[in-house]
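Project standup — Tuesday

K.O.: blocked on the structure for the chain from last sprint. Re-posting the sequence here as requested.
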Amino acid sequence: MPYSLPEPCNICILKQLIDMRRLLLALFICVYSLPVAAQAPASYTSAELLQKLKKLHVLGSVLYIAAHPDDENTRLLAYLANERLYRTGYLSLTRGDGGQNLIGDEQGIDLGLIRTQELLAARRVDGAEQFFSTAYDFGFSKSPEEALRIWNHDKILAEVVWVIRQFQPDVIITRFPTTGEGGHGHHTASAILAGEAFEAAADPTKFPEQLQQGVTVWQAKRLLWNTFNFGSVNTQSESQFKIDCGVYNPILGKSYGEIAATSRSQHKSQGFGVPAQRGAAIEYFKTIKGEAPVNTLLDGVNTGWDRLLAGGALMSRPVNEDNIQRLTDSIISSFNLEHPELSVPALVRLYKRIGTVDNSYWREQKLAEVKKLIENCSGLFIEATTSVPYAVPGDSLKVTLTVNSRLGADVLNADAKIDTTYVIFDQLKKNENRVKTYTMLLPANTKPSQPYWLEYPKEKGSFTVNDQQLIGKAENDPWSIDFSMMVAGTEFIFSKPIRYKYTDPVKGEIYQPLTILPRAEIKISKEVNVLKPGDSLAVNVTISPNADLTGKYQLTTTLPDIYTKLAAKTSSVAGLTKGTPVSTSYSLPASRLKKDHYDMHAVLYDSTGNAV
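H.V.: unblocked you, prediction finished:
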């Protein structure tokens, strides 16, 4: 809330709404997101590849829904994704913007960026996928009615429905009940929305505009509440359905209690480091909607390839050599831990066979899984890196492209496509690096790096996202390069993000995302000013060029509307030099300031009238 000082003092808070496509927010990624998101390209042991091969058998999915990062049951997610081998997702309605911060002083949107990356780090550990709505975590809420009013109930319900229609879960699980035992208005609201969305997702009259965006209606089999025993609040009962999620996975060499501890400990800003747990761990479930489970969470759901035949009814499997189940069984039984490359020809055959499946959802899901297995069983190492952390539209960027067929699998004719140019690699030989460098020009209209949910001004209780296809996504898709090659006689395209790679003398080799900066950044000095009668408010507007900008530019600053004659101040600027800030100042009499909040805007235009 605004804080007003007693007379004779005034406080003026100037909200810096900087245009330039709101490029200042790109700075958030540079400062906050990169250290958390830094990660080397994923690699897998043969045991982990065997685990992923086994997952090809399973066509079942579960979506877990709660309100915040760290609300999720990481042990259950790990169990579902790795023991039951279901496609498993967590939908967090918020990004945790209103939480605490043990590791820094970032709050609000800044903290939400950190906690987004913490959740993604947790999912890389437990094997689940991560989704978000645009709801803003505005802090503790006393009631679900308050939360739903501030969030905009219909907007967030539509987004939950969208995620369900995209993900197509067989079972939906909530962390909290609708009756308030969760203690936080956001918690209860997440359960209410999950219950409403369970039915709305299957109703073609609800949010019908979504059906024109590539999704279809979807009816989950059941909605369950994962009951809990939190301190003095025990909602568990022996009459509820229960499963032991503490079992040990010998392929992974860990129990799900151990995996969950590592996953949960990624929530570093919340101080959620926990010890590993071993032994039985019973999870309880109460059926909210649909038929209650008896033996497994997915009772009544055919999770084999048979679900794609005759509307999902069980049928006798044909025994011809192209049967998907038979091919998968053969690949698993003959998998050689010391020579995974020997499975590549059969995996390519399986890939082609799955490509003929009519069900688009499971076809695309399993094609992606098999393609990843082909890449990793082949021992392929593929990367695109730069030696600089930032790039600027209109400037050149040198990219190093590397391909190594480490196991000598049948891989030929590698190339990389950058824009319309193909970079051709020399013939691949076993465990020999093939390296090419290419200098590309970033088009002047390249969009700077910025979290998609921060591109437009936030509403009171939610972020503004105008592209329906972005709803639910955890983060922006990275800027990537497509590598093409023939594997066992079939062309595959592997998309790899461009990463900034460097060597730290303490940490060793470090990978971080490449950040696209705006050509110039604008800063209005001081968001908060304390003034006394007779003072003048000094406003300094500083342009910090990230590239050399030749020609003439105009800086237009929109001042508080009480200064009618100064409503838009324009300054001419010429010959901006990279790294050399240019400033202009305005002096405003404080006597005319009557409110405690005013908005100011600053935009830099080129000679054609376009914002830089």
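K.O.: great, moving the ticket to review. The chain is about 20% helix and 30% strand. The first strand starts at residue 10 and ends at 18.
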